[in-house]
Amino acid sequence: MQNMDKICGMDSVKGSEECRCAGGLTEPLSEGVQSVYSMARLLGGREYSKTHALEESSLSLAFLGDAVWSLLVRDYFCNKTTFKNNNLHKLCTKFVKASFQAQAVESIMKELTEEELGVFRRARNTKMATVSKNSSLADYKYATGFEALLGYHYLAGDFERIQWIFERFTSSMDEVLELFEKRKDK
Q1: Which among 43, 138, 4, 74 has a CA at the least distance from the CA of 146?
Q2: What confidence score (pLDDT) does residue 42 get?
């Protein structure tokens, strides 16, 4: 696994001004989170800060968080399987749908900081113009809060926290992957 300085393409000291986008990471990132970070670096020129992240609308944070989560899930399964696209898509959709995200955020709620809870609540309580046809309103609102939380950490440059959140669910992903592989063998 590469460390953040290698991903940045810099030989800077962690936490230095040159590497502020990384927020001064203290440990290497998982491959999935490296992918998210690499995509962020490709966009270039963005300043990552908690202040900037808190100024964004809740739905903008959720929009970004949806992309972050989707990339993490897809990258995780692409690295773990040799499934064809159709099966990969079926597998990934189990984890990017609102019902899973609602359960996910409920399972980590007690471990969130007050600031994170504020981001979550603000997004969850935002009035929405549309509602998903495949989930309950409650699940959709919780999923929006979960995605906003990821979007917040993305804009804040807190990739370690994104990794922490994602790693809470890799065992669930592995269990579902195992079931898919068993079905595939039949």
Answers
A1: 138
A2: 63
Q: Is the distance from CB of 68 to CB of 158 less than 8 angstroms?
A: no
Alpha-carbon distance values, 110 to 33, 144, 148, 163, 170 (Å)? 23, 18, 17, 17, 19
Q: Are 20 and 41 in contact (CB under 8 A)?
A: no
Question: Which domain covers residue 62, as residue numbers?
Answer: 49-185
Q: Provide the whole-model pTM.
A: 0.78
CA distances from 158 to 155, 178, 184 (A): 8, 31, 38
- In the predicted model, what is the mean pLDDT of the chain? 80
- For residue 180, what pLDDT is reported? 84
Residue 62 lies in a domain: yes
Question: Which pairs count as long-range contacts for 111-115, CB under 8 Å and 24+ apart, including other chains?
Answer: 112/149, 115/50
> What are the residue numbers of the active site?
66
Token pair recorded at residue 32: 């999935």
In a domain, 18, yes or no: no
